[in-house]
Amino acid sequence: MEENPLRIWKKAMYFPYRKQIANKWWEEFKKVCHIGGPAIITSVSVFSLDFITAAFVGQLGDVELAAVSEVQNVVLGFITGIMLGLGSALETLCGQAVGAGEFNMLGIYLQRSWIISMLLHQDPKISDLAGKFAIWTIPEIFASALNYPTEKFLQAQSKVWFMAFSTMLTLVIHVLLNWIFVTKLGMGLVGAAISGNISFWILTVVKIIYIVCGWFPEAWTGFSYLAFKSLTKFLKLSISSAVMLCLEVWYYTAVILIVGSLKDAAIAIDSISICMNLQVWTLMVALGFSISASVRVSNELGAGNPKAAKFTVGVNVLISAILGVFFAVIILATKNQFPRMFSKEQHVISETSKLSYILALTIFISSIQPVLHGVAIGAGWQFLVAIVNFGCYYGLGLPIGALLGYKFNLGVQGVWSAMLGGSLLQTIILFVIIGRTNWQKEALQAEARVRRWGGPVETQLGS
């Protein structure tokens, strides 16, 4: 039977259009992977510093693991939320400035971020050890104050491969240091803390040397007194960014604190900390696409390309969702094996395995969630997302978690389920916000922001 000529014509017209769409997706996929690939290596390597410390300390005993987990998730988590938040303000400004071709103020933004970053009931056995370990981690905190703004400076310009290589090298050094101080010399928690301090300072100093030694002639023109000008305006955006990310990071901190008062606290903290370590490890992969979403969105908005900014959101979300499914399947397939990486105690292994289904779903959601945060940072929506985070996490997740964990005696599973509910609600709300966004208006706002913060204006003010 002869085919309808009109249908043949429609097919002929549709094929080039479909090919054009496929090519567009492929080109954007390559751009995303160019930024996201090295960013994933960097994020995973940086997080693996704590991951490796937990693995070495876990072999010393369950109380030691619980103590280190409290410091990593509570003390360092609290401080990391502030440092990352202050750094994300730099991510917005630098990314949009790069898109607009305004490189001359990037070094000043970096110095301002450095300045601002530098200024700014538990089980008794666990608390005692955690306190001792926390004191030894103080040098790592100062390294973080310099490290996070430095990362954002490099990411905004897509200089991510150097970060990947330097973090991988640091990771190898960190494994060696832990083997020497913790295993070979038997220095326990003190040895683990010393290893972390050395590794973080190596990581930070290498990046700073790379920046100030002539590799960025347009973006870094040396230390300048202009870094001390307009600090108030810079601080306002930094505070909004810090609140947004602090509410996110401190959510997990609060969960550890709630779990720490449950019956058999050491086992409860160990099991949820093992799950959090794995969840955050997969989160570091998603963070690579958060970074690529932030860089691509901020660059395209700064360049006045709203359609391209909108398109990259879809590409980043799709890739991260596929990876989320992949990681969730791995967790379910190894639910009786993965706890053994962290503990030899059978009761800890058993309790951790029970959380595998909740963990798998959490990993899937937290694979998509960071991409949406990356979009928010790239567009400069930090204050709006901070409000969403507060409502979902502290208005819903934590109160319900405490209720399920204590009132209904659901323990760790109840606390984690409520945390998951808060994350799910936050993700849905962010999807709605992004779906309703007027990207043309966002591009105009980015243009105004670059003019307001940009080089020529501020240089004239400073001269």
TrEMBL record:
According to its UniProt record, where is this protein located?
Membrane
Supply the alphabetized keyword list. Answer: Membrane, Transmembrane, Transmembrane helix
Q: Which GO terms describe its biological process?
A: xenobiotic detoxification by transmembrane export across the plasma membrane
MF terms in GO: antiporter activity; xenobiotic transmembrane transporter activity
- Annotated transmembrane regions: 160-182, 189-217, 237-262, 274-293, 313-334, 355-377, 383-404, 416-434
> How does this protein lie in the membrane?
Multi-pass membrane protein
**GO CC terms:** membrane
* Family stated for the protein in its record: Belongs to the multi antimicrobial extrusion (MATE) (TC 2.A.66.1) family.
Q: Which PANTHER family does this chain map to?
A: MULTIDRUG RESISTANCE PROTEIN
Q: Give the protein name, as stated in the record.
A: Protein DETOXIFICATION
Protein source organism:
Anisodus acutangulus
